[in-house]
Amino acid sequence: xxxxxxxxxxxxxxxxxxxxxxxxxxxxxxxxxxxxxxxxxxxxxxxxxxxxxxxxxxxxxxxxxxxxxxxxxxxxxxxxxxxxxxxxxxxxxxxxxx
Length: 98
Hints:
mainly alpha
């Protein structure tokens, strides 16, 4: 769901975007998909990098949980917005009669 599987021909360009789109895409279409993508990014980048403050600096675990908690909320909100936000031409094309 996050990325397309690698292609067998390694010389071929790897495409992870939706049809008609340019650039990378996670293929997330709903707010839940956006939250799921945000969760995995949060777990991989925020939780792991902030863990050093507890392990090496011996800070309070509660402070660590508070810090990573508000970071998750920010990531989730950004994931929702980026998932449900449609480009203007897609929105306009959907509103016009066929």
